[in-house]
Amino acid sequence: MEVVGVVVEYNPFHNGHQFHLSAARADTGADLVIAVMSGNFLQRGEPALCDKWTRARMALLGGADLVFELPYQFAVQQAETFADGAVSILSAAGCRSLCFGSEAGDTSAFIRTLDFLEEKDTAYQHNIKAHLSTGVSYPKAASLSFKELQPGENLVDLSLPNNILGLQYIRAIRSQTSRMKPVTITRKNAGYHDEHFSSESIASATSIRKAIQEGQSVEQVNKYFPPTTSRLLQNYLNTYGQFHTWDQYWPLLKYRLIQCSAEELREIYEMEEGLEHRVKKAAITAVSFSQFMESIKTKRYTWTRLQRACVHILTNAKKTEMEEFKRAQYLRLLGMTQKGRRYLQSHKKNLGLPLVSKASSCRKGELDLDIKASRIYSLGISGRAQEELLKKEFAQSPVFEDSIG
Amino acid sequence: MEVVGVVVEYNPFHNGHQFHLSAARADTGADLVIAVMSGNFLQRGEPALCDKWTRARMALLGGADLVFELPYQFAVQQAETFADGAVSILSAAGCRSLCFGSEAGDTSAFIRTLDFLEEKDTAYQHNIKAHLSTGVSYPKAASLSFKELQPGENLVDLSLPNNILGLQYIRAIRSQTSRMKPVTITRKNAGYHDEHFSSESIASATSIRKAIQEGQSVEQVNKYFPPTTSRLLQNYLNTYGQFHTWDQYWPLLKYRLIQCSAEELREIYEMEEGLEHRVKKAAITAVSFSQFMESIKTKRYTWTRLQRACVHILTNAKKTEMEEFKRAQYLRLLGMTQKGRRYLQSHKKNLGLPLVSKASSCRKGELDLDIKASRIYSLGISGRAQEELLKKEFAQSPVFEDSIG
């Protein structure tokens, strides 16, 4: 049986994702698609528009057969750790290939780039260090250092976000000696960060979120996603009254920053080099999350890095917890189709990690960070609906939908 | 110069307080009244209806000449520590007497009771221990043990809240070898906890707060306080849009309890004997502060004790911080009249503790807990007014009003 894995966030699931899933299936001749998906907080340090169960449903209706959660510890992370977590889950779930979208769109170019970097590693690391000492951010330092190595034209451009992620997937596959075959497909039309709609029916998730956050209704943007996404988003709005944005968590973050000591803050993951004093001071005067972010940003830290730090402060994610494991320790099932269920039944004994179907029946402590993050995510919703969402994390069984893909 | 001290919370200042201030002045023949007042969080573990600057103003207009803040470390405490803090401040400020209201109303009866308890201390402590082991609360155990000592009729009844406090003032005066003379006057008409209005113009602060919290306007209850209180309360409402109640802090307390670990909670003052697990669990399902309190209460802990613990969780007040000092370390001036100012000018060199007039000009770290508590108190207010209140704590100079007393 041919099984392909994809790494996703689906915030929300749109036509570009639909295209990617179909292409992944077609390009690899796969019978089954497994998605590993970030939970309620995402790689860029943001709360997802709607919860992971709803997004898992979108994935199933869009063509995935199984959806596993990328644990918080790997999801709210820079590319390298994100890739380590995702690759370890897809490998353990039995994927034969990992298919990712990239700007480069050429798998062998990625392999060559990785070989090139491994060969030049000493010089590369040395250059990065030198650039960092001038005060620039890590991604900037890495990108400049890469250029200084004078890569040939047959290597990928490492200033583009999906190329960076792609390279990390391949590095993780190699370092974990996974048998998954990497496959890349060119991302269609919309760049990851594009904020404007660039084609008739394909738009980046960023532009869709922006439109919704600026007050456009689900109906106004629904040409960019399949009808299933549209229906699920509308349901979410009807049930919980709102989508999740940082603004809802700002009062909690502000409180947290006032309440805790600088020493306590220093235990939080990504709080380094005096950043704890900077954020504590800024929290007192800032009146909104965006104003707060503006007042703490520097050349040294990217917006994304700072947003991730804010999520960790919000969830109280400590360095000790975040650095505990290099690979995922469990496969938490968020959803499945009929075909996905059959696959799990027949492969139960061959899975590389323990399968977790329900948080309440899980070994004590194992999912602590994921459960806590989801509970805090629920606090973004006000009124009675908050309780509904709060309960969900612990009691919810994997969602079941039959794929339309 | 005859100077009398009073220990107050003024939440809010009402006719009974006015009576007490006048009586304190008359009974002691004092030229000057110094009040030591709890800050924004009170002895019973509640946020004050309005902030300490407004309440200091009420005190000055009601007849006090100087108002000092009882630091958080002593204010949000059981009677013994509360009294230790208050007595150390009034002594250091130069009071010749301390005048307190009590149910007993007979100073010599308090002295006899204290002598009696000191003499019977071994048996008393032994009985308390025995009662505590049956699971009752400390106040209950102390009250039962006192009765078992068969106190004569000329001692005070230690089941009444103001008698308990009064006894602690006298104990603190003795243990600190303060030269202050204790004087008590009978509390007029309304018992501390009376929730119903019991006379034409005197009502307990509890009943006034209850009426306001249940939606009565300031106007509807203004016969119970002087016009100055009425005006200040109405101003507060106009400026900040609301009075402070636990309900406003419930979302923050709930978040805090979900976010922190049981180990972290155990460092909080008054978190003992597994209470940390109990409160963490209850926070997840409770939908309001009162529901939360109902679900955590036991025979062992009084409501007040649990409310105080909740304030400490909210403000992140650690055991180490709360237990650091047995007496106050500074005199933080909240307000003064012309006469109070002259007194301070002429007695500057004789004060027993350093005078702090403005938080921003204070030694680093000294006021940390008070400043933090006030900032968190500000978060109870929503919108732009929150920022106003937040700034106040650090920038405010002592308020100045001329006494009408």
Automatic annotation (TrEMBL), chains A, B:
The keyword Repeat does not apply. It comes from the Bacteria. Keywords: ATP-binding, Cytoplasm, Ligase, Nucleotide-binding, RNA-binding, Transferase, tRNA processing, tRNA-binding. It is an enzyme of class 6 (ligase). It is found in: Cytoplasm. GO terms for molecular function: ATP binding; ligase activity, forming carbon-nitrogen bonds; transferase activity; tRNA binding. GO terms for cellular component: cytoplasm. Its EC number is 6.3.4.-. GO terms for biological process: tRNA modification. InterPro entries: Rossmann-like_a/b/a_fold (IPR014729), tRNA(Met)_cyd_acetate_ligase (IPR008513). It catalyses: cytidine(34) in elongator tRNA(Met) + acetate + ATP = N(4)-acetylcytidine(34) in elongator tRNA(Met) + AMP + diphosphate. ATP binds at residues 7-20, 101, 162, 187. Its main location: cytoplasm. It holds the Pfam family HIGH_NTase1. The keyword Aminoacyl-tRNA synthetase does not apply. HAMAP family: TmcAL (MF_01539). Belongs to the TmcAL family. Catalyzes the formation of N(4)-acetylcytidine (ac(4)C) at the wobble position of elongator tRNA(Met), using acetate and ATP as substrates. First activates an acetate ion to form acetyladenylate (Ac-AMP) and then transfers the acetyl group to tRNA to form ac(4)C34. This is tRNA(Met) cytidine acetate ligase. It comes from Mesobacillus zeae.
